[in-house]
Amino acid sequence: MISAIAGATLRRKAWAQAPKLTLNQIKNDLYEIEGDGGNVAVYLTDEGVILVDDKFEQDYEGIVAHVKSLTSKPVKYVLSTHYHSDHSGGNAKFLPTAEIISTANARAAIVEHKQANAPPVAPARVVFSEEAGVFLGGKEVHARYCGRGHTNGDAVVYFPALRTLHTGDLMAGTSPLIDYAGGGSLAEWTKTLDEAMKLDFDTVIPGHGAVTNKAGLLAYRNNVDKLRTRAAGLIREGRSQEEVGKVMTVEFGWAANSMQMQWGLPGMMKELKQAER
């Protein structure tokens, strides 16, 4: 009896500690799983499921449970938007039964463990430089590399029949996080989004945050450009990193000790100073 009670208690604790993941329908056969990491897209076909990203490793069971609530078909492909563990951490769990596809740069960043504050992540077995297409059950999905931004290996994932784009962290939250250790670039970010905007879509699934539309992505792009212009002007005036950081906090919502400050600010200062030369 004691062991049974203890076991039940442990199960309740495990359930309480399990990340809360929410399933939302976006369009016919396209769903989104949000919570505890990057937004996962779930595309149903008659031959299997295509995912975009797979969150942290701890989210594997929750993702699979949501997929099983929609279909009995297995996950066949996971298209990775980039290498960070909140988007690719589940790779090791999915690799035995699914193919994971990423940009070559994203794979290299995983192999080289560029994200020092995260546990090791399993790299994709299939990579591409410019574009990869997946055709399954009469449906198609395209992953494209449009340039540097959040990292140097960001992919956007396009669902042409549904006119929907998953941006990964090229759009996330309200202000950009530039991972300079992973090859990110504030100077190139708007050009990268301009390239992605050439696609024909009306719905946008960001890396984090609520599903939006093309106008929402354009507004985000314009905010990135505004931030770059503001920071470049401050640097041109000879302002210090501390002074630029205060402006980022007041005008763009960068919290003190945030990853934006830790990852982005020093690299941004260096990149924009070099651009002025």
Detailed description of the structure:
The protein has helices at 2-17, 60-68, 85-88, 91-94, 104-111, 186-196, 214-236, 241-252, 259-276, and strands at residues 22-27, 30-34, 40-45, 48-52, 75-79, 99-103, 126-128, 131-136, 139-145, 155-159, 164-172, 203-208, 212-213. The protein is an alpha/beta fold. The chain has one domain: 4-Layer Sandwich (Metallo-beta-lactamase, Chain A). The strands form 2 sheets. The protein has a 7-stranded mixed sheet with strand order 1-2-3-4-5-6-7. Strand 3 and strand 4 form a beta hairpin. Helix 6 packs antiparallel against helix 7 (214-236). The radius of gyration is 20 Å and the shape is globular.
Structure summarized in a few sentences:
With 277 residues, the protein is an alpha/beta fold. The chain has helices at residues 2-17, 60-68, 85-88, 91-94, 104-111, 186-196, 214-236, 241-252, 259-276; strands at residues 22-27, 30-34, 40-45, 48-52, 75-79, 99-103, 126-128, 131-136, 139-145, 155-159, 164-172, 203-208, 212-213. It has one domain (2-213): Metallo-beta-lactamase, Chain A (4-Layer Sandwich).
